[in-house]
């Protein structure tokens, strides 16, 4: 893995609402996505993982921090050139294939929407060729272009969503729980497609998920997020073998084991946030082992790492 | 058991051709060459009731607009001899008979229907127009939401009858007074309806996807929002027409309707109700025309709303 940071998030916060009722969904999150890697964001519902993905896509404005793509700022007020760069190089796949396609538009329009937006074709023939290529790449037939979304199955619809992102020729795909709304039998289809695209196109993924068994299978690194903060970030196997943060331990202990006896004997770890006493010592983001980062007060870090 | 196995063995393998798994073929799915509007129209015309009522509306509307042009009977022509007053419907008395001043009820009904339909069309056009624009802004522009919601709450909390009575003091009775009176509050419910729909669309994943692709607002409106609103708008318009005609009758009843020399269904019903026990036909016939128009519009509007829902397209 080359250590070239494609995307860097620097202390980003996202705040919803204003005044006393405001809620910070994401609190000072920093990480880097390297070229050719799959970085997974895992966490429970409402932990802010989807918000991070959408903040990168400029759907939610940042209240603090900065996002850079290859050193160029793409958050806050940006010029048309940066906007264009962002839209082309970073694309998103959505959670619910039933909701993420416009029911009143044909597949042809859905896939070429981005091409129209930035006029990425010289003539109609080239546009059609690009749509056809994108559909073939995700394993769909080119003649599907003239049909409407409701004529497809969930797995096919999800692949149409992937084709829509691929047609922009992105470098980074933000996959927002792309398989959690799919039938179990279809999940492998989409996961394998994503893995194949990563090999063929050298894509980097920011994979947002809550299903740890899938995450372990596809990620290079995993970031565990809890209440809008990343509490632990490590290489995939390292995190599964040596989880350090109590929340990560609790999360890993919740993964079901496909063996009834082992599952019965399994001891669930329950995470109690009140063990932290951050009133006295502010938590810091520190490297506990090479490439293994943790959020905790200096005292906690020493205790967890030993 | 062994007999059956033997008979299987005796089947000629040449009758069979192997069918290898074809990944591309497995993707092929049902294909309907679907077109939204064609399906909507087809679903709509599947209902015989809808066809019948649509035909009825077309005929009634055409007739009420053509009759005043083709007929020479003056709906306000008063008969001077009392023998022509209060005639029952029948031969030589006009199709619907005459009213208390010997005016031809048939002519009056159709002139009235024309006035009322025109009123309904104008009010529907204005209500839906203002309601759509206000509702779309209310829904899509987050900053407006608070102000518009408060405005809506204030305006809907004023009883409409009070507004109408106050307006009738300020404005002279007439066609446009009724238009202003009914439109002043009528757009609110449409605006709220459109606002709720627009908010759903704005936060729907497919719209977020469009924003992630950098789609400009003009195309988001044209491709993501409007196709979902058109059917609602047509339905709202179809339902506002009978409501406005009914409201005109109500306004006439409380004395705020059109001036008495204007023939409208509202005025006819009010005059008819005074003589109802002696000459019921003077109330019944205009009411029949009124009910036919409003009920037809209402049912056709509802049938269209059902047909415009893609879930009802097979």
Binned, the helix content of chain A reads 25-40%
Low-confidence sequence ranges of chain B: none
CATH architecture of the largest domain in chain A: 3-Layer(aba) Sandwich
Largest sheet of chain A: 8 strands, mixed
Number of strands of chain A: 12
Q: What's the helix-strand series of chain B?
A: HHHHHHHHHHHH
Q: Which CATH first-tier class of chain B would you pick?
A: Mainly Alpha
Number of structurally distinct domains of chain A: 2
The largest pleated sheet of chain B is described as: none
Number of DSSP strand runs of chain B: 0
- CATH fold-level assignment of the largest domain in chain A: Rossmann fold
What is the CATH superfamily of chain B?
Answer: MetI-like
Total DSSP helices of chain A: 11
The amount of beta strand of chain A, in percent, is 15-25%
- Beta content of chain B comes to under 5%
Provide the structure class of chain A.
alpha/beta
| CATH C-level name of the largest domain in chain A | Alpha Beta
Query: How many domains comprise the coordinates of chain B?
Result: 1
CATH architecture designation of chain B: Orthogonal Bundle
Rg of chain B to the nearest angstrom? 29 Å
Describe this structure in words.
The complex is a heterodimer of chains A (306) and B (314). By secondary structure, chain A is an alpha/beta fold. Chain A has helices at residues 49-56, 80-89, 107-118, 124-137, 154-166, 184-201, 212-218, 236-241, 246-253, 260-265, 298-305, and strands at residues 5-16, 23-34, 38-42, 64-69, 72-73, 90-93, 172-176, 204-209, 221-226, 229-235, 284-289, 292-296. Chain A contains 11 helices and 12 strands. Chain A has an 8-stranded mixed beta sheet with strand order 6-7-8-3-9-10-12-11, sandwiched between helices. In chain A, strands 2-1-4-5 form a 4-stranded antiparallel beta sheet, covered by helices on one side. In chain A, β9 (221-226) and β10 (229-235) form a beta hairpin. Chain B is mostly helical and 314 residues long. Chain B is 70% helix and 0% strand. At the A-B interface, α2, α3 and α5 of A face α2, α9 and α10 of B.
